[in-house]
């Protein structure tokens, strides 16, 4: 009877464990699907905003990156215990400051998609630096678990190291820069310059993460993924530079047209490198399909644009070829094919 009871209990535990594993896998799949839908929706919103802003020059939409999400945590008790034990002071005297810090973390979970939200993330990151210096000793853990979700798949990751919190906040700073850059009106020189500045800042953040946070548990903060993000941001900066050259074209002489062709070919080349980086086995199924498709479109689009401007420069400027400014207003190389 005892052996039979042990066997029954063992089978019940195995069944419970299998059910829990199944539920966990279902949750991951659902979170992944929800996250992919969120990315697609965000991409569509940026695309629609871009199309309504560009009435005179047809531009391909940029690729923004979604923010990492995190769970709510309460550090009040661990911080108070550390103050009492390590510093020997009355922790209740610092309760208001701890509450302000917790409110700041709560607010940075859902920042506004503009410069104000960027300042909020930077303020929280600066506070984490001082917190790391005074409360997180390498010889003792406060027992605080930081939960963050992958920005592309929604898969959760947990660590007790404050470096994971800092790295995730930095990742969101870079992601928010990509959204700010993608929302700029690139039909004006001011909008193009603002987009260049935002994408350059995003590339700098992702490069800093790649060089200083090499042991992150989530795939979006791994070195190969960050390398792709850096390349993508640099490509989008180059695209803005090309648009700046085209929008500054005052006449259609050979030198101006060849300069435009050179810039368009350079954009196509950098997007081709991004596409190669996205095709590696580790990240091939991780990168969103919409990103891969958009990078492919941009590679061919700017290659065709380079061919068009080269042909325009080599042809006689007697008016037989379509006027370059009218082609840009009517859709670029597609208009040449229709013509």
Q: Please provide the count of β strands.
A: 2
Class from secondary-structure proportions: mainly alpha
SS summary, helix count: 12
Distance between the termini: 89 Å
| Major sheet summary line | 2 strands, antiparallel
| Mean pLDDT over all positions | 81
Indicate the low-confidence ranges by residue numbers: 48-57, 318-322, 324-330, 333-339
Radius of gyration: 26 Å
Strand order across the largest sheet: 1-2
Succession of helices and strands: HHHHEEHHHHHHHH
CATH topology name, in short, is Serine Threonine Protein Phosphatase 5, Tetratricopeptide repeat
What does it look like?
Helix 4 runs antiparallel to helix 5 and helix 8 packs antiparallel against helix 10. The chain starts with a helix and ends with a helix. The C terminus is likely disordered. 30% of the residues are buried. Strand 1 and strand 2 form a beta hairpin. It is built from twelve helices and two strands.
